[in-house]
Structure to design on (222 residues):
C-alpha cells in the first residue's frame, strides 16, 4: 500500500460520480455494522455491491496523518514526564520527522452505505498510517502500564502509612491500658479512648487496632 491515498481518493470520487451515486461527506456510526474484509483492498467491488443493492448514497470520510501526529506528540510528552524509557520517544520523533512531508495528505479512507438499518463499510489505510497507529498503541500501552505502576505504588505507600499510624496508635493505647492496669482492652474501651482523643478510625482498622494492642499487652505481661 502506498504512503498516500490521494490518487485512490480521486479514483473513488470519479467512480461515485460516474455511477450515479449521491456523495455524502461524513462519518457513520451504527450499532449494527458489517465491515468489508480488511484483507481485501478492492474498493470497487464494495461499491459494485452497493450499486447492485440499489444504494443511492455513499458516505465518504477520510483523514490525514496530522491528527495522529498530534496524538503522538501529546503521548511522548507524557512519557517524557513519567517514564525513564525514552526509546519509544526517540522512535516516535523519528517517525514524525521522516513522514512530515506527507502529513497533510490522505492516509485513511472510509466508504459506507446503509440498508435496512445496517451499515456496511469499507476502510483503507496507507502503510504509514498503519505504522503510526502501531506506535500510538505502543505509547498507549506504556502510559497505561506506567499509570498502573504509579497507582500500585501510591496504594502501597498509603497502606504503609496507615499501618505505621495504627502501630503508633496501638503503642499509645497499650501504654494507657497498662497505666489503667488493664490486661486486655475491649472495643468499647478503645472506642472511648479514641473519642476522648478525637481520633477517627474506621471499623475494620479499629478491630485491627484492638488486636494489636492486646498483643502488646500480652507481650508486656511476660
Amino acid at each position: 500500500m502506498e504512503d498516500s491515498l490521494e490518487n485512490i481518493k480521486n479514483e473513488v470520487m470519479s467512480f461515485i460520480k460516474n455511477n450515479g451515486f449521491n456523495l455524502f461527506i461524513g462519518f457513520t456510526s451504527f450499532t449494527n455494522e458489517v465491515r468489508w474484509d480488511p484483507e481485501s483492498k478492492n474498493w470497487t467491488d464494495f461499491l459494485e455491491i452497493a450499486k447492485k443493492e440499489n444504494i443511492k448514497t455513499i458516505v465518504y470520510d477520510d483523514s490525514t496523518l496530522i491528527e495522529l501526529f498530534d496524538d503522538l506528540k501529546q503521548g511522548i510528552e507524557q512519557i517524557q514526564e513519567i517514564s525513564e524509557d525514552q526509546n519509544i520517544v526517540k522512535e516516535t520523533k523519528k517517525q514524525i520527522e521522516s513522514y512530515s512531508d506527507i502529513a497533510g495528505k490522505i492516509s485513511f479512507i472510509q466508504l459506507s452505505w446503509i440498508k435496512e438499518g445496517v451499515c456496511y463499510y469499507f476502510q483503507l489505510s496507507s502503510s504509514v498510517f498503519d505504522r503510526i497507529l502501531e506506535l500510538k498503541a505502543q505509547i498507549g500501552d506504556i502510559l497505561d502500564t506506567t499509570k498502573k505502576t504509579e497507582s500500585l505504588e501510591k496504594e502501597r505507600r498509603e497502606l504503609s502509612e496507615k499501618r505505621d499510624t495504627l502501630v503508633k496508635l496501638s503503642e499509645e493505647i497499650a501504654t494507657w491500658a497498662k497505666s489503667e492496669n488493664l490486661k486486655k482492652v475491649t472495643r468499647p474501651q478503645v472506642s472511648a479512648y479514641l473519642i476522648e482523643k478525637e481520633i477517627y478510625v474506621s471499623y475494620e482498622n479499629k478491630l485491627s487496632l484492638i488486636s494489636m494492642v492486646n498483643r502488646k499487652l500480652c507481650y508486656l505481661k511476660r
